[in-house]
Amino acid sequence: MFDQDILIADLRFEVKVLRDEVEAFKSGEKYVRMEEEFHRCRRADAKTIRRLEKERDAAREEARHVRDLWFETCDQLVKDIEKLNGKLDKEHEKLLKKIKELYRVKTNLEEEKEKNKSLRTKLKKNHTNSSKSSSMDPNHGTIHNSREKSGKAPGAQQGHEHHGRKKQEPTSKILIPAPEEYLDKEKYTPTGKIIRRQLVRVHIDTEVIEYYTREFREKESRKRVHAPFSEGVTNDVNYDGTVKAIAYMINNDLYTSIDKTRVFLEDISHGKISLSNGFICELSKEFSDKTKTEREKIFEDLLSSPILHADFTFGRACGKQTAVIISVADGKVLYQGRKHKGNEGVKGSPVEFYEGTLISDHEAALIKHGSKHQECLSHVKRYSIGAAEIDPDKTWHRELTDWITRAIEYRNDAVSGEFPWNKQKAREYIDELKEILLLAEEEYEYEPPTKYQMDGYNLFKRMNENFDDYVLFLRDPSVEPTNNISERQARKFKRKSHQVMSFRSQRGVEYFCDGLSITESVKARGENLYDSITQRFNMT
After folding, report:
1. Residue 439 lies inside a defined structural domain of this protein
2. Measured torsion, CA atoms of residues 237, 242, 245, 249, in degrees rounded to the nearest 10
3. Would you call 309 helix, strand, or coil by DSSP?
4. What is the pTM of this model?
5. Rounded (5°) CA angle 256-349-465
6. Of 98, 132, 155, which marks where a domain is finished?
7. Rounded CA gap, 276 and 254, in Å?
8. What's the rounded Cα separation, in Å, for the pair 144 and 151?
9. Domains contained in the chain, number
């Protein structure tokens, strides 16, 4: 009843307005006002046209003048550049003669031999004998599996349980009738067994929920009002966490470009899901904002972990090098984007406040933290191989390489339960490493290294000065002898870095690292990644 009264009142008001307007037309007063307004507008338009024509003529004259000055300037610049090039060519020839003369005077045969030897060694450096990653060594050969060969044929082994494709709950069933000849009871007898085979199809469908409400106008202020919509329903068309999760996963977890992500979603939904590049790009920031509390919890858990793996990796942002510090422990991963590595990169990370056992490579900004430190022996092994190639006359490098292989194998076998941990055996490995370093000291005293052979000598000095950092895994078998855990996590950022080549901003690096911390921790827990990302995007 109340709504009908409002409607009648509105109709009466509109009838009154229309009646007054008709009376004005009948009296002719409306036509006079309209004609006067028309003439006034014509006079104003004519005045504006004359003014614009004058401005146009002046602009054309100014442009013609500027063009003439531009041509004169360009001609003068060409002449000046040609003159300057002539002078530079003469100066270049003089400098070349001086350089050649200095080169002939300063060179010496022994120096050239050492230099050539060093250059040849550097050319041979790859992922097996230096800290260079295999991804930066595109011409490397096959990276062989380190597992021992069993001698068995590849594939499924006899006696093993068959692991077939997972059968699904059928949504429809189709009976294939038996051929007529099989129905001949004289020739064939039913076995009672039903042969079932499934054909699985995937359909991508969209569910669109449209919210609507009546609009009202306040009589006094004439303001339009309506009932508030649900949270997250702010635009004409909104996308919930399911759409955002798919786009985010394709772009950030599958390392696909933003354009290809957009096109893929358009194609698979037959044009129903058409996201902008900006929308996909902003998902990283939104995901970072909604998981801030969760990352803080990961930060706290890493600090309380008895053993922490840490590493730096690199990418590019705004055409410049950027760094990422990675902290890993107990299936939890934290990536943090930094402008630089070193002490500045460690600030604000779990490593800065960590008091337990830290495992890392020989990074000066990392090894100063933690109460104990284990050096990554994978790096040491590569350094020793490279040092042996530079200085083949010495033997300690090769003995160190062999010792690392045997010591790691012993520790891993004991931890896996193949045999009990033997403190005496571990002590023997520690004493053996001391003997190797004594051998290195003798060899370097007998034949000091040249400036092109310092890699092996520096490795010897580090191991001699910080001996406990290289044998902690033998004193405490719970400590990993390598930092491969964080090295593997670094590849996740490397893949994205190679895909985008260079992030648009440092904030972009940080947003991606924030998301990577959550997704990698979710994977480590064995949770469904899509459901987990959807849940976080739907958080208020």
Report:
1. yes
2. -110
3. strand
4. 0.70
5. 110
6. 98
7. 19
8. 16
9. 2
- Give me the chain's average pLDDT, please: 86
Distance separating alpha carbons of residues 469 and 462, to the nearest angstrom: 10
In a domain, 477, yes or no: yes
Cα dihedral 153, 159, 164, 169 in deg (nearest 10): 180
7-34 confidence digits (pLDDT tens): 777 777 777 777 777 776 677 776 777 7
Does the pLDDT value for residue 237 go beyond 60?
yes
Residue 405 lies in a domain: yes
The SS3 of residue 317 is: strand
Confidence band of 142 (pLDDT split at 50, 70, 90)? low
Domain that holds residue 423: 307-526
Cα–Cα nearest to 470, from 335, 374, 540: 374
- Residue-wise pLDDT tens digits, 350-401: 999 999 999 998 888 998 899 999 999 999 998 888 888 888 888 999 999 9
Determine which of 6-15, 39-48, 61-70, 193-202 has the lowest per-residue pLDDT on average. 6-15
CA distance 535 to 461: 52
Q: Which two tokens stand for residue 295?
A: 């990352």
Q: Work out the angle at residue 505's Cα, subtended by the Cα atoms of residues 504 and 506, and round it to the nearest 5 degrees.
A: 145
How many angstroms separate the CA atoms of 287 and 280, rounded?
A: 11
The pLDDT of residue 270 is above 80:
yes
Rg for the chain, CA atoms, rounded: 38
**CA 88 – CA 90 distance, rounded (Å):** 5
Cβ 305 vs Cβ 312: under 8 Å: no
pLDDT in tens, 485-513: 998 898 888 888 887 778 888 999 999 99
CB atoms within 10 A of CB 391: 23
Integer angstrom CA distances of residue 382 from 133, 248, 379: 11, 37, 5
> What average pLDDT score do residues 230-237 get?
87
Q: Of 275 and 148, which is predicted with more confidence?
A: 275
- Report which secondary-structure segment, H or E, holds 462: helix 454-465
CB-based burial label for 513 (10 Å; 0-12, 13-18, 19+): buried
Angle between helices 529-537 and 506-524 (to 10 degrees): 130
Q: Which residues contact 230 (CB under 8 A, 6 or more apart)?
A: 211
Q: CB of 426 within 8 A of CB of 354?
A: no
**Residue where a domain stops, chosen among 76, 98, 120:** 98
How far the first Cα of the chain sits from its last, in Å, is 40
- The stretch 401-428 carries a mean pLDDT of 92
Helix (H) or strand (E) holding 359: strand 357-360
135 within domain boundaries: no
